[in-house]
Amino acid sequence: MKFQNTPIDSKIVEKKIHESGLTNFETATIREIVRLVNNIEEDSGNKFLRMEMGVPGLPAPEIGINAEIKALKSGVASQYPMIEGIKPLKKELKRFVKLFMDIDVDEQGCLPSVGSMQGSFATFLVANRSDHTREGTLFLDPGFPVHKQSCQVIGHEWETFDMYDYRGEKLRNKLDTILSQGKISSILYSNPNNPSWISLSEAELKIIGEMADKYDVIIIEDLAYFGMDFRKDYTVPGKAPFQPTVAKYTDNYVLLISSSKLFNYAGQRVGTIVISDYLYNRRYPDLKRYYKTDQFGYSMIYGSLYALSSGTTHSAQYGLAAMLKAVNEGEMNLTENVIEYGERAKKMKQIFIENGFNLVYDKDEDEDIADGFYFTFSYPGLNGNDLLEHLLYYGISAITLAVTNSTRIEGLRACVSQIGLDKMTLLDERLKQFNEDYQKQ
Ligand SMILES: Cc1ncc(COP(=O)(O)O)c(C=O)c1O
Q1: Distance 280 CA to ligand 1 centre (A)
Q2: Same-domain status, 266 and 374
């Protein structure tokens, strides 16, 4: 395809792609795409419709910011925080999981982390070392590439499959086949899922829980997008429906609840880890190879988290505690900071479809998937690498699904967070021009 009269000067795009050294976008990381697009924007003076990175596009709540300021003014900056977390955060987190998930945990297993990313890293370091005969994590993909990077830098093995191919009861056989080989220590998935935005059903979570018990595997449930399946209203504290969770079906779990998207709090790098009472107290003799004790919870706090960062920023914990308290008490609506993403996704999907694109992951069994933070799309006749390259000339950026371990490598992931409702017309114009140019060639 010849790129003539495209919204972004084609010579600049070509030059910057060449300079980036990226020969195949299917292996390009999110941050590499970010850098490339920054460079094109800078040289061309044209702004992109940026859909490559999952950054919050809305402001952080005043409640959190004010609580942090107050904590800083009271002098916490000079004090090391306790690694297991400040008391108000532990208290509000325990309440939060009761009120919004209907699960009971002791405060001792409610911990802060430096973002959910540290939560998964810390958990890999303990869960994947609990049994010397096992090797690592099974990812129910597609998924967040940095989790595999975490396993890789620690030196843990990992396996993966695309769970879209094994929805419903099919998931049981697939898990049975892999877990029966005895090599898996932990299973990680995100729900709702980044990038596909599929949501696991109660039946699927039950299968995962049953398999965790059958094969004694630890489930790491990544709730980075807590409450964001907007087809259901999970926002009333203490009232069903609750955020679905594997915790209803097994005691072998660690939950990772991020504040980055739910509270637009990514910059403060504060997240949480919730360990079931059973797992917290469980003893794994093989942990003694790496930790002073064989107890899971103790190894998480005084082994793994101590070594990683010796705690989570003091003031950020106060900020998060205040936001959790506000939603627990119904003073702030759980999803009021993110609900607009659903509206954006709905409009964007429609614009993509009207301009010749297809949705890639589009169903939760027989129901349309929710509208939320991400969606996935493809264009007939183009693979993911070529589609991403083509769209760069039209001032649109995304990431390939290949980089998320999806089997649907013709697709790209779009994040809606930086595409405000005021940018929909521009998106439509650019996609229309792309579609017309492509059909003409
Ligand atoms: C599925 C998933 N897990 C974890 C994270 C990281 O969360 P945090 O910012 O809390 O480290 C992200 C961020 O995009 C994500 O998409």
Answers
A1: 23
A2: no
- The answer, yes or no, to whether any atom of ligand 1 lies below 6 A from the CB of 160, is no
The runs of H, that is alpha helices, within 270-362 are: 277-281, 296-299, 306-308, 314-328, 340-354
- The verdict on the CB of residue 258 being under 6 Å from ligand 1 is yes
If one counts the domains in the chain, the total is: 2
Location of structure tokens 């980075």: 224
Percentage with pLDDT > 70 across the chain: 100
| 418 within ligand 1 shell (Cβ under 6 A) | no
**Minimum CA distance residue for ligand 1 atom 3:** 224
Q: Cα angle at 57 between 52 and 58, to 5 degrees?
A: 170
DSSP string, 181-227: TS-EEEEEEESSPTTT-----HHHHHHHHHHHHHHT-EEEEEETTTT
Q: Classify the phi-psi angles of 398: left when phi > 0, otherwise alpha if psi is within -120 to 50, otherwise beta.
A: beta
Q: CA torsion 264→368→27→431, rounded to 10°? A: -90
Is pLDDT at 57 greater than 80 in this prediction? no
Q: How high is the mean pLDDT of the chain?
A: 96
- The domain of 321 spans 62-328
Candidates 258, 273, 376: which one to mutate for ligand 1, based on the most atoms within 8 Å of Cβ? 258
Tens of pLDDT, residue by residue over 332-389, are 999 998 999 999 999 999 999 999 999 999 999 899 999 999 999 999 999 999 999 9
| 169 and 303 co-located in one domain | yes
Atom of ligand 1 nearest to the CA of 143: 1
| DSSP per position, 412-426 | EEEE-TT--GGGHHH
Domain assignment present for residue 2? The answer is: no
Does ligand 1 have an atom closer than 6 angstroms to the CB of 262?
Answer: no
Residues 6/25, Cβ–Cβ less than 8 Å: no
What are phi and psi for residue 3, nearest 5 degrees? Answer: -100, 90
pTM of the predicted structure, to 2 decimals = 0.96
The H or E element that residue 272 is part of is strand 271-275
Instruction: State the Cα–Cα distance between residues 88 and 95, nearest whole angstrom.
Output: 11
